[in-house]
Specification:
Blueprint: H1 3-6, E1 14-17, H2 23-34, E2 38-43, H3 46-56, E3 65-69, H4 75-89, E4 94-97, H5 122-149, E5 153-158, H6 187-206, E6 212-219, H7 228-235, H8 250-257, E7 268-271
Parallel strand pairs: 1-2, 1-4, 2-3, 4-5, 5-6, 6-7
Helix pairs in contact: 2-8, 4-5, 5-6
This protein binds nicotinamide-adenine-dinucleotide (NAD).
Nicotinamide-adenine-dinucleotide binds at residues 18-19, 21-25, 43-45, 71-73, 98-102, 131, 135, 158, 160, 219, 221-222.
Length: 278
């Protein structure tokens, strides 16, 4: 391995991923395992986290993978996972804040379209912000706080291309549905993802002298067999003419979580097939 490639090496590092049992969490885990880290997949669904870890345990490099239940909205749950990990590994060097609730734009007709801003409930607003934003805040406080007090580490906040532009609500439209009932990407998504970039900048400067680097990754939409019409409308907005493949963010995670990005902090890396530059 050349000296430059060695900067990507995460051997001896311990990484924790929140919401890790979902679509991209597993991809982040593969990226980190391949680079040599020991990876802890956590999720509010503890069984799914353990199952994901079991499936990744073999075949992705020297690092080991375990799964644990952790609810990012519950400070007690976060602290007890940290306690267990510190007993087991003595340190946690990398935190990937990935957990989110992404209410998909619903199929079928509903009496009142609850995704629309006028109808959006305070309950949904609070719930989604609690998971996607407050959850990241709590995990930064617990894991980042430990890093800051113990020589440093890396935090990666998973935002979205919707952290840099507004949703184009035309891509979510349903034929034959009244204007006032058209489904939309909810306001929470834009607010949470933009705020995660704010949290990233805040902590990057706050902990710059403690050797804790904090960056954000903003992925574009991943293709997972969405309806043809939706894909057609979305890809029309993307210069590369396609949605992302699920594995296409692994390299960025390896870069942002390793010394390959040692002079980088407070940045939002947008990987969107060029959508935001069109
Ligand atoms: N998939 C995409 O196209 C895409 C695009 C841009 C950004 N993102 C972002 O990437 C991240 C991962 O997305 P995904 O597609 O893998 O989503 P996903 O829904 O597949 O996974 C999210 C995971 O978070 C977990 N979760 C929910 N509430 C939690 C809580 N309270 N505590 C801990 N875990 C909790 C869920 O159980 C789930 O496993 C999200 O932040 C998402 O906004 C995804």
């Amino acid at each position: 391995m050349t000296a430059d490639m060695k900067n990507f090496d995460l051997s001896g590092k311990v990484a924790i991923i929140t919401g890790g049992a979902g679509l991209l969490g597993v991809e982040h885990a593969i990226g980190l395992l391949t680079a040599g880290a020991d990876v802890v997949i956590t999720d509010v669904n503890g069984e799914a986290a353990q199952e994901a870890a079991r499936q990744l345990a073999a075949g992705h490099g020297p690092g080991k993978c375990i799964g644990m239940r952790m609810d990012v909205t519950d400070a007690g749950s976060i602290r007890s996972v940290q306690e267990e990990l510190l007993k087991r590994y003595k340190a946690v060097h990398i935190l990937v804040n990935n957990a989110a609730v992404d209410p998909k734009v619903k199929e079928g007709n509903v009496l009142v379209e609850s995704s629309r801003f006028e109808n959006f409930s305070l309950e949904q607003w609070n719930f989604q912000i609690e998971v996607g934003l407050t959850g990241a805040f709590l995990c930064c406080q617990v894991f980042g706080g430990w890093m800051a007090a113990h020589g440093g580490g890396v935090i990666l906040n998973i935002a979205s291309d919707l952290s840099v532009f507004a949703p184009d609500q035309r891509i979510y439209r349903k034929e034959g549905v009244a204007e006032s009932q058209q489904p939309v990407k909810p306001v929470t998504y834009s607010v949470i993802k933009t705020a995660l970039v704010g949290l990233t900048r805040y902590l990057a400067t706050y902990w710059a002298d403690r050797n804790v680097r904090v960056n954000a990754l903003s992925p574009g939409g991943v293709y997972v067999n969405q309806p043809e019409e939706f894909v057609r409308r979305l890809t029309h907005l993307i210069p590369m003419g396609r949605m992302a493949r699920r594995e296409e963010y692994r390299g960025a995670v390896q870069f942002l979580c390793s010394d390959a990005s040692s002079y980088m902090t407070g940045q939002n890396v947008v990987i969107d097939g060029g959508r935001s530059v069109w």
